[in-house]
Structure formats: structure tokens, C-alpha cells
Write a structure and sequence with these properties.
By secondary structure, the chain is an alpha/beta fold. It is built from five helices and six strands, in the order βαβαβαβαββα. α1 (about 25-45) packs parallel to α5 and α2 packs parallel to α3 (about 90-110). The radius of gyration is 23 Å and the shape is elongated. Bound molecules: 5-nitro-6-ribityl-amino-2,4(1H,3H)-pyrimidinedione.
Length: about 190
Amino acid sequence: MSNPTTISGMLDAKGLKIAILATRFNDFIVDRLTGGALDYLERHGLDAKNITIVRIPGAFEMPLVCQKLAASGKYDGIVALGAVIRGATPHFDYVCNEASKGIAQVMLQYKTPIGFGLLTCDSIEQAIERAGSKGGNKGVEAAAAMLETIRVLKVNRTQSRRTCDNSAFQILIQRLHCYLSLILCYNC
Ligand code: INI
């Protein structure tokens, strides 16, 4: 039985160009997410000179600025970092919905991997937990997801070419086998 083909991305950030989008709203949380993302990317080989940090007002502005960065064609990937914390009004839902929907649209439209590091929390305590304490650091997770996706998409191109080459080679072998069988039969 043959083995399944597995395509997976190496966590190697060497030579990539990355933009980090960080909101000023709730900056005491977002700065920790940004620090986590930077640390992760540099420890995986990314040169600091290939990182651009873009500061924006709040999560609602994320889709537009992501779109501009993706459309520039300058970046292999984007890490989008922010924190929305629920208040007394439905504002939270509008901001979260538009930010997540918009970022997903940009990712598909420009085929640019975007690490989704937008915290959507009911309280400041929940946000602190996810910004480098007991809930981990969502900035690190977003950077890791973006890096793996960039690499998976790059592997995919060469892998599919290799798969085509393999199947063409297999067809050739099958044909040769048929001809050989016919010749041997004829001689019998
Ligand atoms: N923006 C955030 O990033 N986080 C929030 O918690 C938040 N709250 O709660 O209001 C928030 N609002 C601002 C919004 O993103 C826009 O910047 C603003 O509405 C101006 O367009």
C-alpha cells in the first residue's frame, strides 16, 4: 500500500517580508501581542529589516489597511493584531464582525496569508490571559499560523508539479510494460 502524500510547511521565516498590523486601541494588550509575534518571527529566521509594523486606530480599520498592504505585493504575509473588549453596548459585535469578515476577504482576494491575532474578549482579564500569561500569547499563535500558511502555499506549487511528473512517469512505465508484454507474447 502506498503512503499518503503529506504537504506541510516548514517554520522557516528566512528571506520573507512581513507586515505586522497593530491597533492603538487597548495598546497595553496589543503591545504584548506584537512583542510575541516579533520574537517568534525573529527566532524563526526573519531579519528585523524585513518587518514593517503598521499602527492603526482600532480593529474596525484592520480590513482596509490589510487590503492596502496585501495589494502592494510587498509582503509574503501579514500578522493582524488587536484586542476588542466587550462593553455595555453592542459596539463590540459590530467591530468584531466587520474586522474578522474583512480580514478573511482580503486573505482570499489577494491570496496573502494573514495571521488573525484579534482578541475578542468579554473582559480585560480575559485579554491579559491571552497576551502572554496563562492563556499563551495570541500574537505568537497568529505569527506561527501565518508563517506555516506561507510555507504550505509555497510547497504546494512545487509538490503539485512533482505529482504531475510522477503520474506522467507512471503512465510511461505502464505503456512500456504493455508493449513488452505484447512483444513477448507475439514471440511465444
Ligand atoms: N477598537 C478596538 O480595537 N478594540 C475595542 O475594544 C474597541 N471598542 O471597544 O470600541 C474599538 N473600537 C474602535 C473601532 O475599532 C474604531 O477604531 C472606531 O470606531 C473608529 O472607526
